[in-house]
Specification:
Helices cover 27% and strands 24% of the residues. It has 7 helices and 12 strands. Helix 6 packs across helix 7. The radius of gyration is 20 Å and the shape is elongated. The protein binds a DNA duplex (16 and 16 nucleotides) through helix 6.
DNA sequence: AACTATACCTGCAAGC
DNA sequence: TGCTTGCAGGTATAGT
């Protein structure tokens, strides 16, 4: 489900409902998520604490508590977070429930279990979780010079480079294709080849597309209140992702699909030229 | 060091 | 209908 825009939409949806609420208890399934269930920490740090903020870092959602601790969710590929009445029927793959003081509960549902829940007890503990995560693409420091420096002499395809969470946080497989199309950069172009001008374009496109996607409610379902959920409508704006063989919206050439680092990558051979350059 | 392949899971759609 | 195959929005790791 979630790249940065989807996670941000979920955060925005949850925030007003969670702020000021007290987490009175927790329950979890016996299935193992990507990380072990933090049972002890949930009891010692989370139970009976009040929510003071709901934040996002990369693709993580942080629920900050009055005691300085935080519950940190990652949604993996199929994770969902939603608020439900406590007595509403539970469904398959509900793995964590945080019971609130208003007869609602936050439920984490994840079919593939690539997601995770972590509890950090302090500011340092929270920082530790994010030590190796790169810059926020919507933040001030995310600039063309930063990317130029980071790229250094790396020959890795620019698509893989931009999906490296140590470089930039939250750019996933859908939006990276869209960003590179917007910037007219071929996904196979080695990262080290890009000029400052190209990086400037890439940064502008990245910001533009992620912001648009957030405004549109993301590319998929963001069901943060009730069982119903609301569909994001950014998929209508996708230029290349998932459009193999269909005409490029800019030049009508068929959109191409290749596999990079095991992931589908979509682009237009005409609008995104692979530049041969010796260096 | 840099980069790629693989593993982790379930569900769904397409093809036979 | 039922089976098999391939594919899916992520990331840590093992391997080259």
């Amino acid at each position: 489900m979630p790249e940065l825009p989807e996670v941000e939409v979920i955060r925005q949806g949850l925030s007003p409902h969670l702020l000021g609420r007290r987490i009175i208890a927790w329950r979890c399934s016996n299935k193992k998520l990507r990380l072990p269930m933090p049972r002890k920490a949930l009891t010692s740090w989370v139970e009976s604490e009040e929510v003071v903020a709901v934040e996002r870092r990369a693709k993580y959602i942080l629920i900050r508590l009055a005691n300085g601790a935080a519950v940190i969710f990652h949604l993996g590929m199929t994770g969902r977070l939603g608020l439900f009445p406590v007595r509403s029927p539970r469904v398959k793959h509900d793995h964590v429930r945080l019971l609130l003081d208003n007869n609602l509960e936050l439920r984490f549902n994840d079919a593939r279990r690539f997601g995770s829940i972590q509890v950090a007890g302090s500011r340092e503990g929270i920082n530790d979780i994010f030590v190796s995560i790169g810059l926020e693409p919507l933040g001030r420091e995310f600039t063309a010079t930063y990317l130029l420096t980071k790229a250094g002499t790396r020959h890795q395809p620019v698509k893989n480079f931009l999906m490296d969470s140590r470089v930039v946080a939250g750019v996933g497989n859908i939006y990276v294709s869209e960003i590179l199309f917007c910037a007219g950069i071929h996904p196979l172009q080695p990262a080290a080849d890009l000029t400052l001008k190209q990086w400037q374009l890439a940064v502008r496109c990245c910001r533009k597309i992620l912001r648009q996607a957030i405004v549109c409610g993301g590319t998929t379902i963001a069901d943060y209140v009730n069982a119903g959920g609301e569909a994001g409508y950014f998929q209508q704006k996708l230029q290349v992702y998932g459009r193999k063989g269909q005409p490029c919206r800019r030049c009508k050439n068929p959109v191409a699909r290749i596999v990079l680092a095991g992931r589908s990558s979509f682009f237009c051979n005409n609008c995104q030229r692979l530049e041969k350059r010796q260096s």
